[in-house]
Automatic annotation (TrEMBL):
The lineage of its organism: Bacteria, Pseudomonadati, Campylobacterota, Epsilonproteobacteria, Campylobacterales. It comes from Campylobacter coli. InterPro entries: C-N_Hydrolase_sf. It comes from the Bacteria. Keywords: Hydrolase. One of its GO terms (molecular function) is hydrolase activity. This is Carbon-nitrogen hydrolase family protein.
Length: 78
């Protein structure tokens, strides 16, 4: 049977330490699937309107790589 953890936060900072903490806690509680709410990883859409596309792309790629690394570390599906 699968256990699912649903995590809803305001936008997290570029540092992956908080995300690491919550994914570890999810794994420790027996979850194998983690669902993240909207805007947890990227800025709210109104903030994105004022950001250069290159910065949005850079942040998105960094978060994607972080998710891949942490999913492997904790053996989670995100």
């Amino acid at each position: 049977m699968s256990k699912i953890a649903a995590l809803q936060f305001p936008t997290l900072a570029l540092s992956e330490s908080r995300l690491d903490y919550y994914l570890k806690a999810s794994k420790d509680s027996g979850a194998n699937l983690v669902v993240l709410g909207e805007y947890v990883l990227n800025s709210f859409f109104t903030e994105l309107l004022a950001m250069p596309k290159s910065m949005i792309k850079e942040q998105s790629e960094a978060k994607k790589e972080s998710l891949i690394r942490l999913a492997k570390k904790y053996e989670l599906e995100i």
